Here is the input.
Amino acid sequence: MAHRVNLRARGAYHFTYSGRCVLITDLAGRVGEQDPLGLYVDNVRLLSRLEVSVNGKSPRPMSASPVGGDAFLAYEELPQADGLPRESVYLETARFVGEGMRTVLRLLNYGPEEARCELAIHLAADFADSQEAEQQQRQQNAEVETTWDHAAAELTFPTAIRSWIAASPSAWSARPNRRTGEREPCGFS
Here is the structure.
């Protein structure tokens, strides 16, 4: 009879990975603004924050675990509020890491009535090197501005940052944008 041993070199984190990408979360499955959490591509942190809030509050973690090496699943209870009964609505977060990352959020209502809430996704990027994040000491800092295209549901970075990424030896390869044909860094959806 084979025994399965779950060894964890870094007990305070979950790791989800595939190819050149790795997602590091806390034990609740969150990517808060603390080092070394984030989504890394070729040792450069693309996302330094990926958090969800409901009516301005964080959901209460219930369970979180990697599923294989390249997927992650977490469940959280939404905080009670007007239009949101206690212990009735839950958030299921599934993350899939490949050439970037895809996140699927599902709200599950087990209550007898319709529930309403405001769901917000908080994102940040700092392009820290993995060693800088691990040591919690930045050697380079720059303002990172983003643009959200609501119609395309797409987050983009200014051309200057995309050029720096393409020129950086510690950055990742570019791939063609399906819509424009221009080469852009590997990203997330």
Summary: The CA atoms of residues 42 and 174 lie 12 Å apart.
